[in-house]
Amino acid sequence: MPETPPVEDLGAGVWSLPVPIPGNPLGFTYVYVLTGSDGPVLIDTGWDHDDSWEALVKGLARIGHGIDEVRGAVLTHFHPDHTGLTGRLRAASDAWIAMHPADITVTERLRARDENEQRSDLADQMRSAGFPETDTAELLAGPRYSPPPVVPDLPLADGERVDLPGRDLRAVWTPGHTPGHLCLLLADGGRLFTGDHVLPRITPHVGQFPLTTDDGDPLGDFLASQRAIADLADAETLVCLPSHERRFTGLRTRAEEIMGHHEDRLREILDLLPDGTAATLWEITSGLTWRRPWADMSVRARHMAAAETSAHLRLSEERRLTTRIAGADRPRWAAVTGPNDPA
Fold first, then answer.
1. Does 88 map to a domain?
2. What pLDDT digit, counting tens, does each position of 223-258 carry?
3. Would the CA dihedral through 256, 259, 263, 269 be positive or negative?
4. Checking DSSP bridges between strand 191-195 and strand 239-242, what pairing results, if any?
5. Which SUPFAM superfamilies match (predicted)?
6. 174-213, pLDDT tens digit by residue?
């Protein structure tokens, strides 16, 4: 687990404030603090844990601010390592909380579901994907996903300027990792806050949820968002400030690497589907190459891997490289042959 780095002055009124994620291999989330003429604004808040809250409060104190002085928080997306402390922040200050409307909708839906409904839906997904019952039972016995503590009160759409007097901070909608993921461009500071959309080493998770739905195309959205972010003015010289790992430059180059990774994965999936073969999501996912051998992966990691594979299959359907074969028990996928065959 990486060591949590210190609070750091990045210049131009920007501070990085690492907030730990106890027990998680990611180690920490970078919360960024931007100073304006009427109080600081946060980008993300961090994980909901006493140690995380202490790090946020003490970090703000180190740069001369109390938690009650925070003007607002812009959330890059709804995941708990980015939104977990919104409830404590709202209780301790008058801060507004902003997020893209698509992720506000997801947050409202997640908060409306009770635990039994969530577990029932998850069981249906696992069985539809073809997972063994032992895997399904193990995943259901684990902790449930925690939705964001509060619903943001300020929708922030693509291109809109953040309420940060004296600064020019604008939303850049980059769907894929989540439907409403935002990057944030600090036009008066030459900085791009990339959230989880572009990371310097790992490729962000892009999954299809529910697992076997044919609604939407998150990977297609993600690749289009990568292309759009790569085409930003001065993309190669912008200082990129991600939520994890380290800051970097060379945005266009990194975005192209991420896009290339997903194209390679699509080809690997097609290689698993020779003529006449139809396979379930579980069969395809378990046959792919992963950082850790499939047999050694936790059931939660297998579920995430299946969601990622499903997103690739959904894109392959859109490109007419595969076809979904509906079945009474579960869907299967086969490679398209004939006029649409890319070979």
1. yes
2. 999 999 999 999 999 999 999 999 999 999 999 999
3. positive
4. parallel
5. Metallo-hydrolase/oxidoreductase (SSF56281)
6. 999 999 999 999 998 899 999 999 999 999 999 999 999 9
309: left (phi over 0), alpha (psi -120 to 50) or beta: alpha
Q: In what order do the strands lie in the sheet with 41-43?
A: 8-11, 14-20, 28-34, 41-43, 72-74, 96-99, 154-155
Both tokens of 156, joined, read 């922030």
Write out 189-214 in H/E/C secondary structure: CCEEEEECCCCCCCCCCCCCCCCCCC
Q: For the chain, what is the domain count?
A: 1
Q: Express each pLDDT in 61-108 by its tens digit.
A: 999 999 999 999 999 999 999 999 999 999 999 999 999 999 999 999
What is the span of the domain harbouring residue 31?
A: 8-110+148-259
Rounded-to-integer distance, Cα 16 and Cα 27, Å: 15
Supply 265's token pair. Answer: 């994965």
> Is 204 within the bounds of a domain?
yes
Rg of the chain over Cα atoms, rounded to whole angstroms, equals 21
- Of the pLDDT bands very low, low, confident and very high (cuts 50, 70, 90), residue 1 is low
Residue type at position 22: P
| Residue 335 in domain | no
For residue 71, the domain's CATH number is: 3.60.15.10
C-beta atoms surrounding 317 within 10 Å: 16
Count other C-beta atoms under 10 Å from residue 256's C-beta: 14
* Distance of alpha carbon 230 from alpha carbon 200, whole angstroms: 14
